[in-house]
Every structure is written in structure tokens, then in C-alpha cells.
Amino acid sequence: WQYLPEGRAVGIPYRTLPGISPKASYFTRGSGHSRFGAYTEDSAEYQDVLDRLTTLIVPVYWVRGNGDREMVSAYDAGSDPPAGGTPDLTEWAARALERRHRDLLASFPPTVVLDIDGLGPTCFCHGTPESDEGLLTRDTPDAELLAALAGGPERTVVGGHVHQRFDRRAGDRR
Fold first, then answer.
1. Which segments within 78-152 are labelled E, that is strand?
2. What is the pTM of this model?
3. Longest CA–CA separation in the chain, Å
4. How far out from the chain centre does Cα 147 lie?
5. Residue 158: enclosing H or E segment and its boundaries?
6. Is the Cβ–Cβ distance between 2 and 14 less than 8 Å?
7. C-alpha torsion angle, residues 24, 29, 31, 34 (rounded to 10)
8. Quick one: residue 154, left, alpha or beta (phi over 0 = left, psi -120 to 50 = alpha)?
9. How large is the angle between the packed helices 66-77 and 89-96, nearest 10 degrees?
10. Most buried residue, 4, 73, 115, 126, by most Cβ within 10 Å?
11. Taking a C-beta distance cutoff of 8 angstroms, is the pair 156, 123 a contact?
12. Shortest CA distance to 122 belongs to which of 151, 155, 152?
């Protein structure tokens, strides 16, 4: 849960940076999760989370994930379900989105760089700085990790695609 300075909970799950206090800097679970942090493809839950995030009085930094990109693409395609068939969940959810939510999702940048106390310039991305589908895990070999993080000058990169919390270091990168 995210707590505002006056202690009021707004009910949006967050992920903290590894090793940082839970009430310090965080980034939220995005539009692919319900207000309770569960993964969802339900467009009503997408829209609820987006609406709640846009009304926060604290800064919100949006980062595009593959789910956001796929929702925009499915919305823009505007396809009807196949005759006698069922659309995939993303197409179904995208058809129920309001245009304002589609436009918000489309506005998310693939990366955001913030200056984090104790870490310096930190790149926030979904997968890797180069791809919202990049997979880095605690078991990714150092050479592969370094190659994936070599695209930018930031020594610290925070991603969330694998939905696992871990803190890795390889060379001068974290």
C-alpha cells in the first residue's frame, strides 16, 4: 500500500527499490494489476488503477510495460472477435478501455531516469532499457546482464518485467 505523508493509505501496491525503506522511493505496479496487486486483464481493474494513479498528490512517474504497449496496440486495431470465437484477453480488455485510458497508456515513456539518493541517476524500465520484454533474473549471467544494461550511462537500473524482487550487481552496474 502507498501511504501519503499524512498517513492516509491510497491502496496502490508499490515495489520498493531493493534495500530502500518501504516508505521511500517506489514505483507502482502498473495497469496490469488490480488495486490489490494481483495480475489482471480486466479492463475495469486497469481503469480503476489508472484513475487512482492520476489523482495522487505525489509525483507519479509512468514507465511503459509490454502489457501497456499491447493494450494500446489492441485498442488501436479495434478488431471484433472472430465469428464464433473468443478474443484473447488483451483484445477483450482493450475493447472495454475508454479512449482517455488508451491515450494515457500510449503516453508512457519506455524509460524514466530519476536521481535517487544514495544511488545517483537511476534508469527505471519495464524489462531492460532497450526492451519492455527483456528478461533479467537473479540467474542471468553477468556478461548477459552487462550487455543488456550497456545502452545507457546509468549504473543503476530498476526493472519489473519478471515480477521478482532481487538486487544484482555485475561490473559497475546494479
1. 111-116, 120-125
2. 0.74
3. 56
4. 22
5. strand 156-158
6. yes
7. -110
8. beta
9. 70
10. 126
11. yes
12. 155
How many residues belong to the chain? 174
Cell of 128: 531492460
Query: Are 153 and 129 in contact, with CB atoms under 8 Å apart?
Result: no
- Interval 153-172: pLDDT, tens: 999 998 888 777 788 889 98
Measured distance CA(59)–CA(144) in Å, rounded: 33
Strand pairing report for 14-16 and 26-28: antiparallel
Are 51 and 85 in contact by the 8 Å Cβ rule? The answer is no
Q: Are residues 74 and 90 in contact, defined by beta-carbon separation less than 8 angstroms? A: yes
Cα separation of 146 and 13, whole Å? 30
| 130, 157 Cβ separation under 8 angstroms | no
Which pLDDT tens digit goes with each residue over 104-145? 989 999 999 999 888 899 999 988 999 999 888 889 899 999
**What beta strand segments (E) does the chain contain?**
14-16, 26-28, 111-116, 120-125, 156-158
**SS (HEC) of 54-70:** HCCCCCCCCCCCHHHHH
